Amino acid sequence: MKKYIERLWNGLIKENPVLVLMLGMCPALAVSTQAANGIGMGLSTLAVLVLSNFVISCLRKVIPDSVRLPCYIVIVASLVTVTELLIKAYLPSIYEALGIYIPLIVVNCIILGRAEAYANKHTPLLSVMDGIGMGLGFTIALTLAGMIRELLGSGTVFGLRLLPESFGMTIFIQPPGAFLVFALIIAVMNAIGIKTRQRQLVESGCDGNCSLCSTACEERKAEPAESVKTAESAETASVQKGGDQA
Amino acid sequence: MNAAVNTVNLSSAPHARDKWTTPFIMRMVTLSLMPATIVGILVYGWNAFGIVALSIISAVAAEWVFCKICRKPSTIWDGSAVVTGLLLGLSLGPQTPLYCPVIGSIFAIVVCKCCFGGLGKNFINPALAARCFLLISFANAMAIKPVIDAVATATPVGAMKAGEAVNITKMFLGTADGVIGSSILALLAGGLLLWSLDIIHGEICFSVLIGFTLFMGIFGGKGFDVNYLLAHLCGGGVVMGAFFMATDYVTSPVSKLGQLIYGCLIGVLGGLFRLKGNTADSFSYAIIIGNVCTPLIDTYIVQKPFAYRKVGKTRKTTKEPFRIPKPVIALTLIAAIAGVALSGVFSVTKDKIEEQEVFKQSVAYREVCPEATSFSYNDKAQEILGNDGAETENATIYACYVGKNSQNELVGYALSVGAKGFGGQVIMALGLTPEGKITGINFTELKETAGLGMKADEPEFKSQFPGKSVSVDLVKGAPQDDNDISAITGATVTSTAVYNAVNAGLNFYETVLKGGN
Amino acid sequence: MNNTSLIMIIVAGALINNVVLNQFLGICSFLGVSKQMKASISLGGAVIFVITIASAVASLLYDYVLKPLGMDFMKTIIFILVIAALVQIVEMFLKKKSPAVYKALGIYLPLITTNCAVLGVALTNVQDGYNFIQSVMSGFGTALGYTIAIVLLAGIRSRINEKDLPAPLRGAPIVMIAAALMSIAFMGFGGLK
Predict the structure, then answer these.
(1) In angstroms, what separates the C-alpha of C42 from chain B's closest C-alpha?
(2) Which residues from C are below 8 Å from B63, CB to CB?
(3) C80/A77 CB distance under 8 A
(4) Rounded to a whole number, what is the distance in Å from the CA of B42 to chain C's nearest CA?
(5) What b/e readout covers B78-104, taking b as 16+ CB neighbours within 10 angstroms?
(6) Which member of A23, B232, B298, C176 lies 3.0 to 4.6 Å from A113 by CB, making a disulfide possible if both were Cys?
(7) By residue range, what is the domain housing residue A104?
(8) In chain B, what are the domain boundaries?
């Protein structure tokens, strides 16, 4: 039981896909213009992520290694299209609210990233929990950024007006604002994280700053010998490992 | 790291000459800006003083606070914060609300400078980046309202763009409308002082001016007319930018050739934006784009180190036989299965989706043509539209329905029109009375930016349309006459799409539907 | 199709509606690869090649196969397969004909398959209803914009010394702030006609 809860906690905080692993930035930046969009996109991604993790985990012994990436992409794209068609047909009001975000899920690096880093190495049930955890982490990150951007940009949060309209700084609804808000959130998380992760510095040679590291923490812990290598080769190694996560 | 910087000089930029320390340079720059500041305050009054003073104070305070938080020694005494605050203040209009210089200065110092490590480590000009930040955030507040010439509706640059004549002498002296630091005479005095002291590089400021002049001469449409060129040089922050902003040591290239390229780039871009752009300020953006390119220029315009040789290429001569790899077969199989599954889901949901579409459309039509109890086709219109609709230059007319009431009388028309917006097609149902007046618009497809383009769906925007006929004009700001539609601030593309679509619909009425069924 | 509007499509794709700084496609590799200038240039070049050809092939497939058969819903899968195949072909081609370039690109070549920008452009071309030539120009413009953005950011990052920065800003945050400032600069192109 504990391992399943651990997966949830991992996806939510410790290895939050957007803020720590730096995956899924594309839709995160694009969609977080309003808090409500954040929730919509987050939940749709969660649904697709759970399904995709499940399917890929079930098929993990069948998919050949050299074409695994295109296979994953095909599976994910199909799942997204199926979701889109079903929602369009049977839940039209939800489609009106979310419609544009659903095709965007295909290009969400989180799904491929988790398929590559987790689902193809673990059992289906664990993969499902991982999917839920990551999906929730994504949703929370997006909603938080959405709330900040909406508040600073138009003075409302979830449509409730908190500041007068003239206080709105429209730059926050636009691209530069997206970069700035996420930089702020990640910086705050780093500040907190650097304090709480000092011991990792000793253990595995990483500098506690997770934002540019694309391997999962557990993989690093299992190979303490990595810390002896020079910075350059360590970077190459992590790039190669995480290279497929793009 | 910038190799040239590291190997040649142990200190970081700005690279001071032997006799000039950083505080000295900053004091000289402040001094050289004083004439422009004084003229600005004399001409525009206490507002101007307040803005400049507040800007400087905020900048210095922000830097002091940031150093305190980072537990580093305070750097406010090198004078660079004062210069940034002063430059930002001078680039604002005299009627700008006071929160602008405060927020701008904080952004300039904290985000553009301190976050990157402080003086010498930033890549972008803090004052200009802050100005652009303010322009985007507070578009209305930053618009320069004429103070001196109460009759005019725009600044000299705005007037020039509209084709009107301007008074060059006034602009030269600084008594025309504009930003606080717009006295060309005062700016030139300060700039030439700095140049003579070798504090700023002539390669940069003059190549900016020459590049700009050449571009305006060639592409401006008036040839090398002296008045035209002088007028453009005297307005819109060209001189201030050339002498005080582009020449910042930290954000401009190190090598002479690099500086010339950088200056010409800024001049040309400034000209391009002045002629073709519709953003509020052309030169600010041109200079910060130049800043963004500086590291690249520095990397490639460097002398090659000694004994640099290219290593020869080795060639492989073995050839491998070509086979279709097994994994490709597996991939194709998976794709085929996915395809079949998708087709299955599609065929199941296809009809339901179509049903929803039709329902959505009919709701939209009913809302814009409320008295109709049935909709039918107009033969003449159908001939033109066919199955796919008709395309005009900027829009597409998808369908045209004739609304009839229970007595089979014509009560109106409902057209489905669309145009390319920011996030895709903007499609709406356009309702017209039998006489061709708009009854309303109802969007059936609107995928624009939330908070900006999506505002088109709000009553504030939509209510402008009922009652208009024949054609509409898109204006920024308040409507001037009956057929004007106010665009949504910050959503020009969306507003233009709606305007194009509506006009296409109105035109279709005038050419096809008018005169009854 | 007159020439100026084709050029406008390229300029629009590259500068006015920059794929990375405006449309937020391809951010993942944009943030990761811009650490090294050489890698950025190589990746940019590869991306231009792949996106341009992918746009061409996708446009042809859509106009002549998918749309007439009414299989619009299959476009995502088909486009992705095309892209994956294309990258594979480019990889095999480079490996045989020009091993030096292949080695320089290293792992970045397979990375292009998962680059949101490639699929994004193919889908946008369909959405905007571009014909073949327009799709190719649009793809080229988009890829050019991507390359410009990533090379400029690489230049900026080469100047940044991590030790000068406050600790929480090291790594991703400072890169995002730099991207924010670049984005502000590029908004100057916003009003161009």
Answers:
(1) 15
(2) none
(3) yes
(4) 32
(5) bbbbbbbbbbbbbbbbbbbeeebbbbb
(6) A23
(7) 2-147
(8) 13-300, 355-513
B296 touches chain C (CB under 8 A): yes
- The helix (run of H) or strand (run of E) holding residue A137 is helix A124-154
Distance CA A41, CA A96 (A): 13
Kindly state whether residue A227 falls inside one of the protein's structural domains.
no
CA distance C27 to C180: 12
Q: Quick check: is A161 in a domain? A: no
Q: Six-digit token pair at B85?
A: 């605050």
Partners for B (CB, 8 Å, 3+ pairs)? A, C
Among candidates B327, B346, B489 on the partner chain, residue whose Cβ is nearest the Cβ of A66:
B327
Helices B22-44 and B184-196 pack at an angle, to 10 degrees, of 170
Scan for tokens 């030439």, then name that residue.
Answer: B192
CB A38 within 8 A of CB A146: yes
3-state secondary structure string, A172-230? HHCHHHHHHHHHHHHHHHHHHHHHHCHHHHHHHCCCCCHHHCCCCHHHHHCCHHHHHCC
> Which residues lie closer than 8 Å to B169 by C-beta, 6 or more apart?
none
**CB contacts, 8 Å: B288 with chain C:** 181, 184-185, 188
Rounded Cα distance between B261 and B208, Å, is 9
For chains A and C, what is the number of CB pairs under 8 angstroms? 134
**Helices B126-137 and B80-90, packing angle to 10 deg:** 40
Q: How far is CA A72 from the centre of its chain?
A: 17
The complex's ipTM works out to 0.85
The total domain count for chain A is: 1
pTM above the 0.90 mark? no
CA B263 – CA B203 distance, rounded (Å): 7
Q: For residue B59, how many other CB atoms are within 10 A of its CB? A: 33
Average pLDDT (A213-218) is 44
Find the range with the poorest average confidence among A168-177, B59-68, C47-56, C70-79.
Answer: C70-79
The DSSP secondary-structure symbol of B78 reads G
Q: What is the pLDDT of residues B413-453, one digit of tens each?
A: 888 888 888 767 888 888 888 888 888 888 888 877 766 77
Query: Hey, are the CB atoms on B285 and C182 less than 8 Å from each other?
Result: no
Distance (Å, rounded) from C-alpha C146 to C-alpha C34?
Answer: 11
Q: Which residue has the tokens 């800003």?
A: C169
Assess if residue A46 is contained within a domain.
yes
pLDDT of residue B163: 67
How far is B1 from chain C, CA to nearest CA, in Å?
5
> What was the pLDDT predicted at B290?
93
Domain B13-300 is in which class?
mainly alpha
